[in-house]
Amino acid sequence: MSDESTIHNVDPLEVQVFQLVTELLLDPEGGDAVRKMHWLAEVVEKAEAAFRQAQQPAAIRRDGHLIGHLFRILDEFEDFYTLLERKLQGASAERVRNERVNAAVCRLLLATAPVKTRFIVRLMYEEDVLDRVCRWAEGENTSTTTPPASLQLQCYAAGLLSVGLRDRSIADNVVNHETLPVNLLRRARYYAMALENERNQAVEYMHTIQKAALANSKHKKSTAIAAATKKRRLSMEKYPPQVHQDVDMEAQDISERLVHSLPSPAPDNATEHDTSHEEPQKQLLLLDLLYTLECLGLMGEYLELLAPAIKEDILGTIITFLHSHHPTLWSATLKLTSHFLAHKKFAFLFLENGGLQLVLGKKTQEEIAQLHRSMSMVLHGFASSTVVMESIFSRENDRHSLLRMALALLGSPHDKARQNAVVFFGLVLPFRAALEFFEQNEGVYVLLNLIRAGNQPKNAIQRQLAHDACLCLRQYVRVHFGMFVYALQRKITSSSRLPKLSQRKPVDIDDKSHEQQLALFEKHGKGLKDTKWVMELGRLRAVLVLLEVLDVFCKHSARDLEQETTSYRLWLVERAQFSLQSLRLITLVYPQIALEVCTTTLTNSQRNGLSILLECAMSSHFRDGDIVRDSMYVFGNCVLPITMELSKKMKDDTTLKQNLRSILKLARDKSAIKVCLSLLRYKRSLQHADSIRFLAARALLGLSRDRHIAQILEQMQV
């Protein structure tokens, strides 16, 4: 009975895939092999498309879905992938008039890419295979009539190459290819010219932007530059316009319009598409365009590609595609743009020609929801350059729109989009305008929720999101600390020598500047007067969230981590380190919060904050030096506040004294003296040994204020 129910539950497509693979392996060189490979690829592509459409963005596992069953069937045939690999080798691939077979092999491999990326990359590590795929992807001259089989091979080889380019070593080789990168740039520009409506809109848009820049120029020099810029035309304008069609081009699908605009292919004797399972020409043209943009994007960050890209008018190509209404083309164009934004020259050209306004405007909320990941990549690209962000923040409308978009992406259902948005805010929070916007729109609350949710990540993307959220919170605290120290510095020195912080200039929070700020504060600081941001962190239970991160670190460190991957171990220690650094600054500038840090009890482990800090101080993690040092900084601030030593007012603060007595009593109960004494002999990390021993001695000095601990130390003759 169970066997019958199992048979009835099998999807017909699974049976079909099983039969196709069996027949293909029995007769791999037969006349029907090409049709079967296309048929098999078509089935897998449709199942993958259905999976992506039906599932939530966070769901990435295919087990239990039809596509997962199909891939499992393919894996059960040991010779299947060996057959595809053999067909890419020279003996088979270099046969005369073998384009249709090679195209079918590339398409079938490309269909398996969602789960076989490493296999495809390994194939391309072979130099002759990579050269062959590059030659196929380069194709013939796109301005001439291309036979269907050649177009198929060019399209699927470009898709296969886009998978291989995700590997850095392959990208290093391909970007230095003699002709391929330039030919891909020209192909993208050629497709942009084929879209006549978008091309004309792009030309008009760029001229409008340039005229506006000319009208706003106030100096003769800038007027001359703008006038010269006005004369600049898109390089695509020198080509004659395509013949207008009778139908309304705006209403047509973009792939249909590519077919109308490009030369018709040479006649081919292949069977009809519905029986051969080969994709029609209009779909091939669109796929070829998308794969071309993806290949260029994956090489876009290389400096070697910048000069030829500008020469081939990559900016005009991007502006043209941004005038389309095709969501897939828009997404591919945004990803391409995000990679080229790594170059400041391109970023400024993009801004000068109104690219940012195109990205942020003219889209409905429904359209933006489909573009979360690619939009977030563009934001990340802009934020990677401080100079570019200064230029954007000088324009109030652009600044507000950009920040509003980034805030919306923080709530995206796509983990990758949220991660890019978190990284964006981590990079722009040093700007006062971004900091104020972030606080006014409850950005800190969202950030703390992301950190808390990341304590139990389900996959690598969620793990990276939790890591970046901890880093962003540390940046947030550092920015406030940097602003406070800058104000302190202006009081100490002449105010005229240090100008006020500008909304458009970032606060320096790099490691070197931060160490200098700490040294200045420890010498002259007297605690915060304006405690608004610290009180807000307290209201949002930030201390509890940070202690939970440390508790996760302690639990996992107690296990044998040798079996875990290096990336996982680094994730544990870096999140803990960011949390400790945040706690250090909070307890340094606002000693009143120390009691909350020490006494907060976690629901899961039923341990208080002081116990967690002391366990971190005794860490035996492979990067324990950083953790031990930072935990001792926090513990030292709790038992011996620096600001209390510097401020007479704080010395007379009854509440602070009472809090300190409670902390010292708790420290005595938790054997803090034992931890500090053991750290006086710390030698594991040579880099941090001296500072850890100093911090242990400083903590003992603070503990000695408790008369019971003082008696113990006196008897031990420490």
Automatic annotation (TrEMBL):
Q: What SUPFAM superfamilies does this protein map onto?
A: ARM repeat (SSF48371)
Nucleus: is it a keyword of this entry?
A: yes
Any keyword Magnesium? no
- Compositional bias, Basic and acidic residues, is annotated for 270-279
What is the protein name given in its UniProt record?
Uncharacterized protein
Alphabetic keyword roster: Nucleus
What ranges does the record give for the region Disordered, renumbered to this chain? 260-279
